[in-house]
Amino acid sequence: MKSDVKQLNHISFIMDGNGRWAKKRFLPRSMGHSEGVAKAKEVILHIKKLGIRYVSLYTFSKENWKRAQDEVSFLMGLILKHLREDFNFYVENKIGIKHIGDRSGLSDDILKAIDKVEADTKDFTDITVLLVFNYSGKYDIAQAYNRMAAEGLKDITEDKISDYLLTAGYPDPDLIIRTSNEFRISNYFLYQAAYSEFIIIDKLWPDLQMKDIDGALDIYFKRDRRFGGVKDE
Ligand code: IPE
Ligand code: IPE
Ligand code: MG
Prior knowledge:
42% of the residues lie in helices and 15% in strands. The protein is an alpha/beta fold. Helix 1 (18-24) crosses helix 2 (29-50) and helix 2 runs parallel beside helix 3. One 3-methylbut-3-enyl trihydrogen diphosphate binds next to helix 1.
């Protein structure tokens, strides 16, 4: 779906810097990830308060499997714990949740927890969290093409590709915020970010404050999104 020029329907976060946050404190990287989850919950509630309809969180990329086995295992355990133990966080706050990513390669426990939280929050439509987990932008485009090929589709249009991406039915991100002062997309929403605004914040993810998000929104609303056109006089 196309983005709206004046509105902000979908805000997205590349939550980067958990490891550095821990390292600065001489703590194991895992502690940074635990802090990262707490920060993500704070951010979700803040976005809900702002009345933004969709928030996506880049939680684990397909390239993150390259990390040390103990870090990967910790992250898998952390997501499972979050989905199981923080389940009430989503239900009590009436927050819908939807997994965006490759289901293959994820454990049955994680898949079951995802299915449960998705089903139990499906009627909460004020805000939906897109949990971008075991995802990469190139993977997403490839799986879309594979499904279109399997269905024998011809004359594939740009909109058709959007319909087969894992984000089908959700608006493209209007604004993507990345923390930790890293100026790259790291195989995130490659197709969906065609006209997203980018804001890079020079703070590690666990150090992010809600006023940093408010500041980013001020910048976003002052920007002139032209989508290739010419600024209105
Ligand atoms: C982001 O923090 C979380 C994940 C990618 C899972 P990092 O773990 O990338 O933290 P840094 O970039 O090493 O500091
Ligand atoms: C991007 O962060 C992925 C997530 C935040 C989940 P990375 O830390 O994996 O990105 P690179 O390796 O610095 O590009
Ligand atoms: Mg990183």
